[in-house]
Design goal:
This protein is 61% helix and 5% strand. The protein has a two-stranded antiparallel ribbon with strand order 1-2.
């Protein structure tokens, strides 16, 4: 048993530890971009109507701001560019969504209401997924954007000098 625990404590090898960022960047980046694109595809006016209905001030401005944050913030995360900066407006969008829309629906993002010949029918989602997005953003801010990130190119001072371990 001690050998199994010792092996577990050595996994993953130190040089593989930075690769955690790749799946996080993929899911957060693509997820945000998909949500922004869906709002844009339905028309920003449709999202403005939703924001107005839940009592948000300056709904037209917030509609476009949210769409841009989701599209360009998602792209920044996907590319691994300026994630600490991009995560601020992205986190604000998530917290506002939790407080104004998802909180009354509880925690779970999947609420099976019924199942019939047409398939499964689900209720309104809770704030679970928004919390997962926030946790992923926090992990990327604290752990760095990882390999294959645009930050590695943007902040490379000298090709011969190794990057600090945070950007490795």
């Amino acid at each position: 048993m001690d050998a199994l625990i010792a092996r577990y404590l050595r996994f993953p090898p130190r040089h593989w530890a930075i690769w955690h960022a790749i799946p996080l960047r993929l899911i957060v980046g693509v997820g945000f971009m998909q949500h922004g694109y869906a709002k844009l595809a339905r028309g920003a006016d449709a999202f403005t109507t939703v924001l107005h209905a839940i009592g948000m001030p300056a709904a037209g401005l917030l509609s476009w701001a949210t769409i841009m944050v989701e599209l360009f913030g998602g792209l920044a995360v996907l590319a691994g560019a300026l994630i600490p900066v991009a995560s601020i407006p992205m986190s604000i969008v998530l917290v506002v969504a939790i407080v104004t829309v998802h909180l009354p629906n509880g925690f779970s993002s999947i609420k099976l209401v019924s199942f019939d010949a047409a398939g499964a029918h689900f209720g309104q989602p809770g704030y679970e997924t928004d919390l997962l997005y926030l946790a992923c953003l926090l992990a990327l801010v604290l752990g760095g954007s990882g390999p294959l990130a645009l930050d590695r190119l943007l902040f490379r001072r000298n090709a011969a000098r190794p990057m600090p371990s945070r950007w490795a």
